[in-house]
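in:
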């Protein structure tokens, strides 16, 4: 059956960082690397993704941070849909971390659950229609989540809770502490062999953040 979902433990994983995520200094890639050490960064622009696809084997997964960020990164909606449908035919899964409703595997599961078998010439049309419905649900979920967070912050502020950090304070943030451990492990200023430039690239963090953490390590400031 054409929509059958196949799983392979040896499948390869890829990650594409959108330009919007790049501007926001997204940390998705280093976090994914901790989860999947074999994941590879796709270092091409969105309009080159279609040409890149032949390098990716079937049953592989391409991770993206967010459906809407990815959609905006393409020159137009049609180019994105062409890429999405091509992945469908190549049996390559597309996984949107923040908007899983739009995952290609989920669309396939919907086809299976509803026993949808469109004529071959209309498969693209059915995939796009289904994806658009999933995208609307994802948009609603994101808006609801944002509204709930805003309401929670307003309620906390009314109750006199501290919103945001205190200027000048150094906090014991789990994510920051993990980065500091990696800097100590890999930087040749400490126990490793990586230069600053090499390690910034490996950790995929902003230069300012890297040097801030490195300074805090050297200063050994007490954390609160």
């Amino acid at each position: 059956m054409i929509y059958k979902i196949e799983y392979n433990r040896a499948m390869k994983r890829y990650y594409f960082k959108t330009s919007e995520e790049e501007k926001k200094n997204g940390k998705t890639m280093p976090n994914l690397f901790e989860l999947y050490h074999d994941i590879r960064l796709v270092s091409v622009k969105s309009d080159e993704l279609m040409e890149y696809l032949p390098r990716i084997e079937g049953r592989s997964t391409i991770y993206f941070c967010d459906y809407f960020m990815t959609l905006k990164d393409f020159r137009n909606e049609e180019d994105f849909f062409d890429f999405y449908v091509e992945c469908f035919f190549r049996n390559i899964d597309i996984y949107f971390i923040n908007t899983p409703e739009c995952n290609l595997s989920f669309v396939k599961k919907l086809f299976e659950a509803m026993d949808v078998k469109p004529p071959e010439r209309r498969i693209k049309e059915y995939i796009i229609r289904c994806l658009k419905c999933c995208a609307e649900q994802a948009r609603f979920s994101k808006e609801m989540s944002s509204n709930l967070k805003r309401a929670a912050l307003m309620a906390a502020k009314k109750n006199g809770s501290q919103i945001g950090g205190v200027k000048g304070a150094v906090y014991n943030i789990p994510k920051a502490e993990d980065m500091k451990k990696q800097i100590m492990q890999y930087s040749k200023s400490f126990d490793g062999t990586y230069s600053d430039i090499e390690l910034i690239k490996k950790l995929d963090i902003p230069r300012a953040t890297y040097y801030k953490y490195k300074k805090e390590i050297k200063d050994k400031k007490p954390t609160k």
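note: The first helix runs from residue 19 to 23.
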